[in-house]
Amino acid sequence: MAISNPGGNLNSVPAPQKQTLDSNYIDFTSADTKGWAQQYLPDLMEAEAEVFGPRTISGFLSQVGAEESMTADQVIWSEQSRLHISVKGTLDTDTSIFTVTSDIDGNNAGTTNVFTLANHGVRLNDIVLVAVAGRVLKAHVTKVNGEAITAQPYSVENFNDDASIATLGAAPATLLVVGSEFKKGVNGQGSYGSGTGSARTVKPTHVSFTNKPIIMKDVYEISGSDASQVGWVEITGEAGQSGYLWYLKAEGETRSRFTDYLEMTMMEAEKTAAASHIVDAGGTNDTDYAALGANSGTEGLFAAIEDRGNVTTGISGVNAATDLQEFDAILAEFDSQGAIEENMLFVNRASSLAIDDMLASMNSYGAGGTSYGVFDNSEDMALNLGFSGFRRGSYDFYKSDFRYLNDKATRGAINERGTTDAIRGVIIPAGTSTVYDQTLGSNLKRPFLHVRFRASQTDDRRLKTWTTGSVGAATSELDAMQIHYLSERCLVVQGANNFMLMK
């Protein structure tokens, strides 16, 4: 008996005959087919008990990210540096010369960042604030000579005339440009006077980042004799199509594990270091492995945050009041970076309970005050997805337990070791950021976190499956059915300075 309207889009085309083709396979791991399988094929689960619960991980990336195709061997994007000019250095209180050593984030010459001592952006006639030894003095830039900036204070003749800093000599200091002041009838910016090295225009600077996709594969094989386990469903679709779809329950386990691997790799992967034997395959006794060539690796979420983002050891659950102080320290760091108001919290069980206790100690502070903007202002939608929201300061947070960090068969077992590399959670900004895409040559809005997969007009490698062997549509003499899985993808972490890794 044919089934009409089989629960929505099956992503399959029914075959007129019972043929095991890629095109008429029912993928029970797809959100479009899970409900249909439970409704029409309940006997699939009767033969076994899932004693470890639903064994797939939480679908983390599907909840916070997006997916987009790419055609090149790597994705390149550029992020604009900070808008305002603020630098670190040393102030010689005797000469009033401020020597620039790095930008406000600590990047200096010789790093991969665009900041260099030659393009610090401070110009003649700028009004600056100079902070040194607990004092803040306002000054006027009278000379710029490379990284040496002469700034004369407004309140005293020289910096050493201020009693609080008179005896310091050269001391660590911070300089912030707040505006400019010019005399009547003089030229504008670029009038260098006796100094050199002051730019006429402060041009926006960008930092370029790259990531390369990696290829992941797996295979499921069943002998021709055992292929009788293939199940057939005759359907009649809404568009009038009719025919047969097939499914293989055991194969679904392999497919589910592979889709989990796709997600876990995007979180855990890292780029291959130059000294690693993975690069040159040298130093290994396995000639088969060496013949495969180099593996470049790819930058996963955790590696990106550790390299370019923020790391906290706070919110341990030991003391609710202390946890609140540590959480406020996280907010202060976000204030210094970009102040993205909506953020997703994915945490393990211990950290989730610690946050609950912290909020409870505040008499449910923030309850009901969350906007749920990222969920179209729907609290019900957030709750259905397993999120609970709260507000602190000007920030909205949506908290969800991260199964991957709890399950003993995944990160949970690693975290149990109590190592310094244990991961307790991540804080991810919601929404999009504007970046310059060098491949397309234009500014684009992209989610802070998203996946890029390799695709062309002829081959989509987001999640590719195909069948080989002699069972069904025979492709070889092998007396078996082989179902192959392949994906070529990488993760893009934009604005990593707005992310937080909890360790």
Write the layout of secondary structure elements.
Elements: E1 3-4, H1 31-40, H2 60-64, E2 67-70, E3 75-80, E4 86-92, E5 97-103, E6 126-132, E7 135-145, E8 148-153, E9 170-180, E10 206-211, E11 214-223, E12 231-236, E13 242-247, H3 249-268, H4 277-280, H5 287-291, H6 301-308, E14 310-312, H7 320-337, E15 342-347, H8 349-360, H9 379-384, E16 388-392, E17 395-401, H10 403-406, H11 411-416, E18 425-429, E19 432-437, E20 442-447, E21 449-454, E22 464-469, E23 480-493, E24 500-502
Parallel strand pairs: 1-12, 2-21, 14-24, 15-17
Antiparallel strand pairs: 3-10, 3-19, 4-5, 4-9, 5-8, 6-7, 6-9, 7-8, 11-23, 12-13, 15-18, 16-17, 18-24, 19-20, 21-23, 22-23
The average pLDDT is 78
Largest sheet: 6 strands, antiparallel, barrel
Give start-end ranges of low-pLDDT stretches: 1-9, 42-49, 193-197, 364-368
Radius of gyration from the alpha-carbon trace, in angstroms = 29 Å
Number of strands: 24
Spatial strand arrangement across the major sheet: 4-5-8-7-6-9
Residues in helix, %: 10-25%
Number of helices: 11
Broad shape: elongated
Q: Kindly give the count of domains.
A: 2
Distance between the termini: 56 Å
Q: Strand pairing plus helix content: what structural class?
A: alpha+beta
- Beta-strand portion reads 25-35%
